[in-house]
Design goal:
It is an enzyme of class 2 (transferase). By secondary structure, the chain is α/β, with parallel strands linked by helices. The chain is 47% helix and 22% strand. Strands 1, 5, 6, 7, 8, 9, 10, 11 and 12 form a nine-stranded mixed beta sheet that branches. Strands 14-15-13-16-17 form a five-stranded mixed beta sheet, sandwiched between helices. A three-stranded antiparallel beta sheet has the order 2-3-4. The protein starts with a helix and ends with a strand.
Length: 480
């Protein structure tokens, strides 16, 4: 009881107006000691996930290491590394109690059985990597019958098994080994983290692979602690919350596109010795050698400028692809979910109304014999244009999945949403290109309810969509 009361007192102090300053200025060793008597937490990391985190020469390096140093300074907690050989072994260690914490991981249903989680402190996209010549893939739904390589123990394994059980998975030890196996043709597509894959490609000089799409969901990384010490989480969460944005940006810039080498580079040493030897033997060649190096430097600078320009273009493309559907130009599923969560937060704070419309393009007769993908894509583009021309500027239109579109209507009650949904149906049924293609829409509508998250809200709207299909072509169904 004394231990619990001191912990509660410490958490309440953190919420006081002076808590942030106290936490930033001095370690809270006395209070932390009441939770962990030796003031030390043992932890495991992914030993081969640079630049996010890695073990090199027995030392923990990477983004997570920098954040842990800051949190240690703020809280007075000492973190002690327990080395492991693989990510799967790190998960087994924390599950067995050989280490008390994992430094950087996502939340998953399986991990919740033996871990409690801090708030996220770093977010990063996941990507699909394949050999050059593979077309752009629209997430997991676009993989088709290709085999997929993924690191054993990653949260994505649970996600794919649950939502895309038809995909053929090959479990690998690490992303670095996975890239080599991908080049050897042991599988077709690899799921990996953007910064980590980029680092491995640079370090191993891999030329024959390319990023071909994004893999949902993106990483939202935090600490996972053994349930036996979960009372340390409020302290860690408060430390994460007060880390300045400037420090976060500094860490990101430090590790973005950094090449972490796996062995000593003896080539430079040999070249240096040879250069010294050549200078001693033939001083008369000095001027020619200097001129040669100047020409090489100029050439390398030109190459670097060219690569920087290419990288900027690719970054802009990736930024656009992360929020937009490549076929219709509408927002994609991830962006819609993000906007919906923002609207739910606004509803909880200010009780502003919001409505959600889900519409699906369906044939007016049996068209299963028609398989022309170009024709289907053209109709989807037309439907996207009709939706954009019909909704209001504040509404968010997205291609949610396949032939389904979602429209988020902020500050809109159910009656106003019904007017907009009917207007959409009228616009679609009046479009000759859609009707001549023997297509129409089914439309479901619902408004946001008290205590409802996005999955529940979308599920109610989706049920209304199925009701619309049962009612007939071009009919609106409103969720209860």
């Amino acid at each position: 009881m004394a231990r619990l009361s001191v912990s509660v007192l410490f958490i309440s102090l953190l919420w006081s107006p002076f808590a942030t300053a106290q936490l930033a200025q001095a370690p809270t060793s006395d209070t932390t000691s009441s939770i962990l008597p030796d003031n030390t937490i043992s932890y495991c990391v992914d030993p081969d996930w640079a630049p996010y985190e890695a073990i090199r020469n027995g030392q923990h390096i990477g983004i997570s290491a920098d954040y842990m140093r800051i949190i240690s300074d703020y809280t007075g907690i000492a973190f002690q590394l327990v080395p492991t050989e693989s990510w799967q072994e790190s998960l087994e260690f924390v599950q067995a109690g050989k280490c008390q914490m994992i430094s950087m991981l996502n939340v998953s249903d399986f991990r919740k059985q033996f871990l409690d989680f801090s708030i996220p402190y770093f977010e990063a996209p996941n990507i699909l990597v394949a050999r050059k010549g593979t077309p752009i893939l629209q997430g997991y739904a676009g993989i088709g019958n290709r085999s997929v390589g993924i690191v054993k123990g990653y949260r994505q394994v649970e996600y794919i098994t649950r939502y895309y059980p038809e995909l053929r998975l090959k479990l690998i030890k690490s992303e670095r080994e996975g890239l080599l196996q991908l080049m050897q043709g042991e599988f077709d597509v690899m799921v990996g983290s953007l910064m980590s894959v980029n680092t491995h490609i640079n370090n191993q000089n891999i030329q024959d692979v390319a990023i071909v799409g994004y893999a949902e969901p993106f990483d939202s990384l935090g600490f996972g602690v053994n349930k036996s010490i979960s009372d340390i989480l409020p302290i860690i969460n408060q430390a994460i919350a007060i880390i300045p944005e400037t420090k976060r940006v500094e860490i990101y810039r430090q590790w973005n596109d950094v090449q972490v080498r796996y062995q000593r580079d003896y080539v430079k040493l040999v070249m240096t010795l040879m250069f010294v030897l050549l200078v001693v033997i033939g001083l008369v060649w000095r001027n020619r050698t200097v001129a040669l190096y100047k020409r090489l430097m100029k050439q390398k600078n030109a190459e670097i400028e060219s690569l920087q320009t290419t990288l900027l273009d690719r970054n802009r493309t990736l930024e656009f692809l992360s929020a937009h559907d490549s076929l219709t130009g509408l927002y994609n599923r991830n962006h819609m979910i993000q906007k919906a969560e923002e609207e739910i937060s606004r509803f909880l704070r200010f009780h502003t109304r919001a409505s959600l419309i889900v519409l699906e393009l369906i044939p007016t007769k049996d068209r299963r014999h028609e398989t022309d993908p170009q024709h289907c894509e053209q109709v989807l583009k037309i439907l996207a244009s009709v939706c954009l021309a019909t909704v209001r500027e504040v509404d968010v239109v997205s291609r949610f999945s396949g032939e389904q579109f979602a429209v988020l209507c902020p500050q809109t009650n159910l009656a106003e949403g019904e007017v907009l949904a009917e207007r959409l149906i009228t616009a679609v049924t009046a479009n000759r290109d859609i009707t001549e293609a023997d297509m129409t829409v089914a439309v479901g509508l619902s408004d946001l309810k008290e205590g409802e998250g996005f999955p529940d809200w979308f599920e109610r709207t989706h049920k209304a969509l199925y009701q619309s299909k049962r009612l007939g072509f071009g009919k609106l169904a409103i969720a209860e």
